[in-house]
């Protein structure tokens, strides 16, 4: 009887993994200052190779202004309806990211990197949550990836699983 339970549990775990799991992994870095919150996304090696192959049209292993503009228009800005996989949480409700500034893209050690910023918020205490509700993208914020200027206190927290990733930066003045 125990053998049957083990087999059923195994198949349930496998079935869950088949239906929902990340395909893209992004290492996230966050820098909080009074003026803005700067976000850096570093894509995993496989996604980077595919996107660099598509967007580095002159194959010089650098992204020029035209290539960056194309990436922003065709790959980054279409994430707006998904709130760029981020939400502000003010303690009562989640708020979508409405605006991003200063987008740039680069290649660093064969990885595609996006850098952009969010306007500073007047909230004294909030969370910046990183997740994809459809579970195709895993955004991973480690403690060493979060830095804050001296007037802020910041803490990174997260949850890793084979099929679900969710991280947040808790920020207070």
Description of the molecule:
- With 173 residues, the protein is an alpha+beta fold.
- Helices cover 24% and strands 43% of the residues.
- It contains three helices and ten strands, in the order H-E-E-H-H-E-E-E-E-E-E-E-E.
- It has helices at residues 2-19, 45-55, 65-76, and strands spanning 24-32, 36-43, 86-89, 94-96, 101-108, 111-119, 125-130, 137-148, 153-160, 165-172.
- The strands form two sheets. A five-stranded mixed β-sheet has the order 5-6-2-1-8.
- Strand 9 and strand 10 form a beta hairpin.
- The longest helix is centred in the first third of the chain and has 18 residues, at 2-19.
- The protein starts with a helix and ends with a strand.
N-end to C-end Cα span: 57 Å
Query: What structural class do helix, strand and pairing data support?
Result: alpha+beta
**What is the number of beta strands?**
10
Largest sheet: 5 strands, mixed
Q: What is the subunit arrangement here?
A: single chain
Beta-strand content bin? 35-45%
In helices, the fraction of residues equals: 10-25%
The dominant shape is globular
Uncertain ranges = 2-18
Discrete helix count = 3
* Average pLDDT reading: 85
Radius of gyration: 18 Å
**Widest sheet: strand ordering:** 5-6-2-1-8
Order of helices and strands: HEEHHEEEEEEEE
Which descriptors would you attach to this protein?
5-stranded antiparallel β-sheet, alpha+beta, 173 residues, disordered N terminus
What is the topological layout?
Elements: H1 2-19, E1 24-32, E2 36-43, H2 45-55, H3 65-76, E3 86-89, E4 94-96, E5 101-108, E6 111-119, E7 125-130, E8 137-148, E9 153-160, E10 165-172
Parallel strand pairs: 1-8
Antiparallel strand pairs: 1-2, 2-6, 3-4, 3-7, 5-6, 7-10, 9-10
